[in-house]
Amino acid sequence: MNRWKWLIWIAAGALLFFYTRNDTHQDQVSANESSIKSFDPKYNPNQSLADYLIFRAMLSGEAKMAVTGSSVTRGTGSTNQNKTWRGQIEVNLRNSNPALETFTISNHGYSGYTSVRLLEDHVTAPIVKEQPDVLFIETSVINNHNKNVSLEDTFNSLDSLYQLYSQASPNTRIVFLSPNPCTTNKFGPPLNQFGLKFTDYVDETSAYIKKQGWTYFDTHGAMLYNMSSKNISLPSTLKDGIHPNDRGYKVWADVLWPFLKQQQGALPNPM
After folding, report:
1. How far apart are CA 229 and CA 222, in angstroms?
2. What CDD domains would the database entry show (predicted)?
């Protein structure tokens, strides 16, 4: 009789362990589902770009971000890629959530490229293949100005870039951004053959992109405002009058980071 009691107690203990373990597993599943749901754009359509990357990492195991543009996207002027605006944003995102612990940003910046040249196959094909969740397109208008690309051709190239990436990768959130402010022009006259200054290209592309309803970040204006508020001189942020030095790239990253964390509004939901 005692033997049967002992067996009954063992069976009861086993059942209790099974159900307790099962309940714990269900609690973990519910917690994970709740975490994912809190970052799901279906429930937060105006979510930040940073939260969207966290959501994508939770959902698929990794998040992907790419940047394309000219030499100031490539990182010319910095002492190390970790010092560029891309490198610093990458670190900020890694530190923002455990889901992004191994997150990287692929760099498709090319020195001397205009916005027209950003459409060349060797630039676009790797980005399309990557299917990034977020794509930053620096407008490359420093080179457009220096190399006498007309505003019409500039606008047409931005149209083509948006259409290419939005059609090839419909779930990618595309963000245009201007380059940094400059002090001198070592690659061309202050006024190009169209009688336009570099800042004319910044202002005109800014107005055009906003008119199309595309997401845009005014790096140029944000950096100038930040430096003015902190009494930082523009020349002290540049290596050669055009490319940022480490200090300049830090200012760029400092003004861009809050933009990634703010609600964006009207960003497309993933399909």
Report:
1. 11
2. SGNH_hydrolase
